[in-house]
Amino acid sequence: MIGLHTVAEVRAAEAPLLAALPEGALMQRAATGLATVCLRLLGQAYGSRVVLLVGAGGNGGDALHAGARLASRGARVTAVLLDPERAHPAGLAAFRRAGGRTLAPEAAGPALDRADLVLDGIVGIGGSGSLRAPAAALVQRAAAGPALMVAVDVPSGVDADTGAVEGAAFPATQTVTFGAVKPGLVVGAGRGYTGELHLVDIGLAEHLPAASTSQLTDADAAARLPLPDADDDKYSQGVVGVVAGSAIYPGAGVLCTGAALRTRPGLVRYAGTAADGVRSAWPEAIVTDGRPGDAGRVQAWVVGPGMGTDDDARSVLAEVLATDLPVLVDADALTMLAREPQLVRRRAAPTVLTPHEREFARFGSEVGADRLGAARALAADLGAVVLLKGEATVVADPAGTAFVNGTGTPWLATAGTGDVLSGIAGALLAGGLPAGEAAAVAAHVHGRAGQAAAAAGPLLAGDLVRHLPEAISRVRGQRPGGLPDSGP
Ligand SMILES: NC(=O)C1=CN([C@@H]2O[C@H](COP(=O)(O)OP(=O)(O)OC[C@H]3O[C@@H](n4cnc5c(N)ncnc54)[C@H](OP(=O)(O)O)[C@@H]3O)[C@@H](O)[C@H]2O)[C@@H](O)CC1
Ligand SMILES: Nc1ncnc2c1ncn2[C@@H]1O[C@H](COP(=O)(O)OP(=O)(O)O)[C@@H](O)[C@H]1O
Ligand SMILES: [K+]
């Protein structure tokens, strides 16, 4: 599990180290790691052109110390001092001793235009608000040039906690971050500015609290996807019930049921008006065109995709939510639930809501720039797990534990892929995973299936279902074997 730590947590963890270590030692660790990454990227330091963008805080200090190391290896390093009077004194002295030269921001254009590498030490975890004018102009000039763009700790202009970007920000090809991954590097707009992420260990780990926000690795997901063993039968892996699709639009029912089958193929029951379509696509499912109560026993329900929002649909939703089973609520069911949120507030069993941004807004407030904060707030308000879909899907539970998904591809932005996600998550809920983990593992596996399917070109939602066994095998670190095809 990759823990994501807020600025406050990083500052609190730094405090005892700063008190215990000789002055500047922590910054030396950071700068050494930073210079090592830059040297690797440059390949050959000697003769290469490096420009440092240096703000007035510790972030600029890191850049100056790293620049000194690069200069001592023969790189031609120029520091653009945004606030010369306040540049980090020890860093600037080391930089000058190593032969580095300085420039005023107004004179920096030509150097930026021909740099091999630009190091962004404008602002790190001490930043607030949008990037100020001189810094923003330098960032834009650097971005237009040919250089590798390396951000120090956090790309300047990105809010380290939320990923919010107001105005300009440094579009890094690489970000070298210190001590802990900050949430803003992997979520929201910030994710798009971070590039490849490098974490430098500066000794903070033992001082950091347990992370309340995490990102799953393949190994974390695999540990939550148990293999069936000799004692299992078709019921023991958990039976999932699916209410999705309609007579006119059976697709959502077919996709959702297929995804559930391909995730934990113990048993999937389907109840709804898309019964004929589901039956012919998936002979493995047990299908009724009756109500959920007619379907037989299940351990979790998925309700919503393509089911409509008429009175019948509303009464089916109420029936499912009145059970004491875990329920995943998606799509049309979210639209209905937003009108009657008490249906979920009064539940004792876990509920997972999987809105995209427009569905989220129906519950009363826009997602905004702080996606983690928004998901946490809705989860706490409704007492449900909220999986907020999008480029970086986030999952939050009512107690405040959250996950940021790290897998996926923009090719997933196509109709029906959300129905597949619901089927995967429903199967994991029925298997007994805690609701927040079921949602997070589902997003992880769904993203991996998207990546596998996209390798062959533009993907359709049905391709995701077909690639699920392969994606799950890969998450487990196994070489996927071929599976016969069935369904969409
Ligand atoms: N603590 C340590 O020992 C270690 C710290 N480390 C490093 O230090 C960094 C934290 O240093 P920090 O606390 O000095 O803050 P920092 O990120 O440099 O920002 C402050 C400067 O930014 C400016 N500024 C603010 N907003 C702005 C905006 N919108 N647009 C433009 N400018 C803006 C602000 O200006 P001011 O408001 O003061 O006028 C001030 O000049 C951390 O990220 C890591 O890199 C590592 O070496 C490990 C050891
Ligand atoms: N730009 C994107 N990058 C990565 N994943 C995306 C992007 N846009 C959408 N997705 C993913 O695609 C899926 C779309 O789901 P949804 O909006 O419910 O579509 P539908 O209702 O058509 O099934 C979600 O899992 C979402 O996270
Ligand atoms: K920075």
From TrEMBL:
HAMAP family: NADHX_dehydratase, NADHX_epimerase. InterPro entries: CARKD, Nnr, Ribokinase-like, YjeF_N_dom, YjeF_N_dom_sf. (6S)-NADPHX binds at residues 58-62, 124-130, 153, 252, 306, 356, 419. It catalyses: (6S)-NADPHX + ADP = AMP + phosphate + NADPH + H(+); (6R)-NADHX = (6S)-NADHX; (6R)-NADPHX = (6S)-NADPHX; (6S)-NADHX + ADP = AMP + phosphate + NADH + H(+). Its cofactor is Mg(2+); K(+). Keywords: ATP-binding, Isomerase, Kinase, Lyase, Metal-binding, Multifunctional enzyme, NAD, NADP, Nucleotide-binding, Potassium, Transferase. The lineage of its organism: Bacteria, Bacillati, Actinomycetota, Actinomycetes, Geodermatophilales. This is Bifunctional NAD(P)H-hydrate repair enzyme. Residues 217-475 form the YjeF C-terminal domain. Its EC number is 4.2.1.136, 5.1.99.6. The gene is nnrE.
